[in-house]
From TrEMBL, chain A:
Its main location: cytoplasm. Residues 209-233, 506-530 are annotated as: Disordered. Keywords: Acetylation, Coiled coil, Cytoplasm, Cytoskeleton, Isopeptide bond, Phosphoprotein, Ubl conjugation. The keyword Ubl conjugation applies. Belongs to the dynactin subunit 4 family. This is Dynactin subunit 4. Residues 220-233 have a biased composition (Basic and acidic residues). It comes from Rhodofomes roseus. Subunit of dynactin, a multiprotein complex part of a tripartite complex with dynein and a adapter, such as BICDL1, BICD2 or HOOK3. The dynactin complex is built around ACTR1A/ACTB filament and consists of an actin-related filament composed of a shoulder domain, a pointed end and a barbed end. Its length is defined by its flexible shoulder domain. The soulder is composed of 2 DCTN1 subunits, 4 DCTN2 and 2 DCTN3. The 4 DCNT2 (via N-terminus) bind the ACTR1A filament and act as molecular rulers to determine the length. The pointed end is important for binding dynein-dynactin cargo adapters. It is found in: Cytoplasm, Cytoskeleton, Microtubule organizing center, Centrosome; Cytoplasm, Cytoskeleton, Stress fiber; Cytoplasm, Myofibril. It holds the Pfam family Dynactin_p62.
TrEMBL record, chain B:
Coiled coil: none annotated. This is Dynactin subunit 5. PANTHER family: DYNACTIN SUBUNIT 5. Keywords: Cytoplasm, Cytoskeleton. Belongs to the dynactin subunits 5/6 family. Dynactin subunit 5 subfamily. It is found in: Cytoplasm, Cytoskeleton. It comes from the Eukaryota. The keyword Glycoprotein does not apply.
Length: 557, 190
């Protein structure tokens, strides 16, 4: 695997320091730069785990129709046009007429829209060849199918039960939304009278479900208990347990069915039955076509100050954003590489006379990391800001965890040593020009220069004089070298946390500009410069140390 | 920074607009194919510009935008259907910054901008892939599928896996431009 750098979001932790990288759980706290957001108000990185998500629009992923939120509920979050999923393989179904196919191949090909269709029509899967005639669903007209299917859905016992539940809770829902001015964000709130009532109903009807206790999760639950008394008991349409016997087999019937199985395919897989809200038949031939669930476009807010970080354009298939505060516009992009691995790869490619676009993911044995050796690695920083920055690196000390675990973790610390450049180094400002210039110039490197560079490095490695410091500066990119010393006992991944601090010129963002551009800090301003500092943690993964025996084996081949 | 990807200068023809087409690729009906510029057609790829709609006159069968890559051994074939008893081919339109991994077969009707298709995929007839979508390696997209913008599809049949990050467009653009820059003639042949 290629070396990688991920960025830390401290959202889940109490301490500002990241967890030790060798803990498997630490990967939850590190993210690729392009998945992160940046809140200017808080001057902090945010990730998909901590941002608040709001739906800004619904659409059908198949017909791409934008569904107004008003009808989303009535249509039960599914497309009400002619979009269906195959219950067998989840491919999109086509509507086909039952007139005899012109040639045997026609059903496979999309002749669906032919106008000489003859009723009855049915739904057909061009992937697994399932069709709805198998389950006795056919249509007189090829239009309005969703409405016809929804009629079935709505008369299903689970749907009726749900409607009854809704009816039962409607008054409380209305009361609670009018009494406490509920903001959209309060859906995060775990305790409101509705959850409390639902929970008490559940606890009564389903054995083993304990009563939901809001007090254990939220302090604000206390005053709500007064509401709970107002809710009368809910009477189910059908007794619990009776549902299992309803056409869904269960018990004896299922046993009988299983006894006479001829192929496994007769039993619907868990995945195929999973989406049903109630007990469903085990039989594959009872599977019904599914209306396609809607998808949504989402806005994202900072969890602490609630400023909007992401706001998509209204149009469902637009990939543009009205507001897009992504970390990549604020923090330098960091990538890491192992020069020795790259050199080995080059040699391999040339010697095998590999053709150009061949895969780059095979790595030769010479590219491996061996225990007991010392390797140089290159870290490249790309500055996204319109002003130059000064960067300083520090390897994070393995933080002894507060508590007893600390000592044990420390003992297991990966046995390698990392040397990073200690001095601060500059990265030039990003300039729009670099993007628009011809790409050849952007990279500014001729092949010959590149080869010289490689040669010099190889020499360095041979003569054992390794450099730790700035290797290269071009455009808004600075490359620095560090080294890693592996002990003989080294095993596992060479992974360490690195603290990156940078100073930048800050201009107080003009709020008007903020909305217009989304990336205010990118704007050079005429105000007197004020230097600011920002630090963030990363985890650098240089790759896995090759076990010795295996390496010998590899070179033999 | 990723290493250069070298190719043999003798193998590739470079056009005025910077397209690089392997001599080992099969370009059928080149007069019906449009390449937007800085697009690479790797060796072994087959592009069927010859499968055109019946009827007189000139017709664009396959159009590719800028900074595209048709990987090694890919087959790009326009979709066809029989409509009102007439068999016909329909044009295939592909936007800018679209990479198709090696060994994939594409019969899509429309592919938007900034789309990544992995290796060994089958993109069925009349598929519509919207902007910034991604198809994972080894995915089979059945005919007539619609892949919405910023969606990752994988599996057989290809299904929605997750939403892609908001910065997908920038990332894909940097990747396709970077690839074109790194795609250089081998120095030994200079
Ligand atoms: Zn977070
Ligand atoms: Zn739909
Ligand atoms: Zn199917
Ligand atoms: Zn904030």
């Amino acid at each position: 695997m290629a070396p990688s750098v991920d960025y830390y979001c401290p959202c889940l932790a109490a301490s500002p320091h990241p967890p030790p990288p060798h803990l498997p759980s630490s990967s939850d706290s590190f993210h690729p730069l392009h998945n992160l957001f940046f809140c200017e108000e808080c001057d902090a990185v945010r990730c998909n785990r901590c941002v608040m998500v709001e739906v800004s629009g619904y659409y059908c992923p198949n017909c791409l129709f934008e569904v107004p939120s008003a009808s989303v509920r009535a249509e039960k979050n599914r497309c009400a046009r002619n979009c269906f999923l195959c219950p067998n393989c989840r491919n999109t179904l086509s509507v086909v007429p039952s007139d005899p196919p012109n040639d045997g191949y026609d059903r496979m090909s999309p002749i669906v829209s032919t106008s000489l269709g003859e009723p009855p029509f049915f739904l057909y899967c061009n992937h697994c060849r399932w069709d709805s005639a198998q389950v006795d669903i056919t249509f007189e007209k090829p239009t309005g199918l969703a409405a016809q299917l929804q009629k079935f859905e709505d008369s299903a016992p689970e749907a009726l039960e749900f409607d009854r539940l809704k009816e039962h809770f409607e008054p409380f829902l209305r009361a609670s939304s009018s009494s406490s001015a509920v903001t959209p964000s309060s859906s995060h709130h775990h305790s409101n009278p509705i959850t409390a009532a639902a929970s008490s109903a559940l606890a009564r009807d389903i054995p083993g479900v304990s009563k939901y206790n809001p007090l254990s999760r939220s302090r604000s639950g206390r005053d709500k208990s007064s509401h709970k008394a107002d809710i009368p008991d809910y009477k189910a349409r059908m007794e619990v347990g009776a549902a299992a016997g309803m056409g869904a087999g269960g018990g004896e019937a299922d046993l009988e069915f299983m006894r006479h199985l001829e192929t496994v395919a007769e039993v619907a897989t868990v995945e195929q039955r999973w989406v049903n809200s109630w007990v469903s038949s085990l039989h594959t031939d009872d599977l019904k076509p599914l209306r396609i669930p809607l998808q949504s476009k989402k806005s994202k807010r900072c969890p602490s100050c609630r400023h909007i970080l992401i706001k998509p354009e209204q149009k469902a298939q637009s990939v543009r954003y009205k507001i897009k505060l992504v970390a990549a516009n604020y923090l330098p992009a960091i990538s890491v590489s192992l020069p020795h691995a790259r050199a080995a790869l080059e040699t391999m490619k040339r010697s095998l006379n590999r053709s150009a676009a061949q895969s780059e993911d095979q790595s030769p044995a010479a590219a491996a990391l061996l225990a007991g050796k010392t390797y140089s690695f290159h870290i490249s920083f790309t500055n996204p800001l319109y002003d130059p920055i000064q960067v300083r690196l520090k390897k994070a000390q393995a933080m002894p965890a507060p508590g007893t675990e600390g000592a044990g973790e420390k003992a297991k610390r990966p046995p390698f040593q990392v040397n990073l450049p200690s001095a601060a180094f500059p990265i030039a400002a990003f300039a729009e020009a670099w993007e628009y210039e011809d790409d050849e110039d952007m990279f500014g490197l001729d092949d010959d220069d590149d080869l010289d560079g490689l040669g010099r490095l190889q020499k360095d490695q041979r003569s054992k004089t390794r450099t730790v410091g700035v290797v290269e500066k071009r455009a808004n990119v600075t490359v620095v070298a560090g080294e890693v010393i592996l002990t003989k006992e080294s095993r596992g991944n060479v992974k360490f946390n690195m603290l990156v601090s940078y100073t930048y010129r800050s201009d107080d963002p003009d709020p008007a500009e903020e909305n217009a551009m989304g990336t205010p800090s990118r704007h050079a301003s005429s105000k007197p410069p004020e230097m600011k500092n920002f630090s963030f943690y990363t985890v650098v993964d240089l790759g896995t140390i090759a076990p010795r025996e295996e390496t010998i084996h590899d070179t033999d081949m | 920074m990723d290493a250069p990807v070298y190719y043999s200068r003798a193998e590739y023809i470079e056009t005025d607009t910077g397209n690089k087409v392997s001599r080992r690729a099969t370009i059928a009906g080149p007069q019906n194919i449009i390449l937007g510029g800085k697009t690479v057609i790797a060796s072994g790829a087959i592009i069927r510009g010859d499968l055109r709609r019946t009827g007189p006159g000139h017709a664009v069968v396959i159009s590719l935008g800028r900074y595209c890559l048709i990987g090694e051994g890919c087959v790009m074939r326009p979709p066809y259907k029989t409509y009102r008893g007439n068999f016909n081919y329909y044009p295939m339109k592909i936007g800018d910054h679209v990479h198709v991994g090696s060994g994939s077969i594409v019969e899509a009707a429309t592919i938007g901008n900034h789309v990544e298709i992995g290796k060994n995929c089958i993109i069925g007839k009349f598929t519509i892939i919207k902007d910034c979508a991604k198809i994972a390696d080894n995915t089979v997209i059945p005919p007539n599928t619609v892949v919405p913008a910023l969606a990752l599809f994988a599996g057989s049949p290809g299904r929605f896996v997750e939403d892609l990050p908001e910065s997908t467009q920038e990332m894909v653009e940097a990747h396709t431009k970077g690839f074109y820059t790194r795609f250089q003639p081998a120095t030994t042949e200079r």
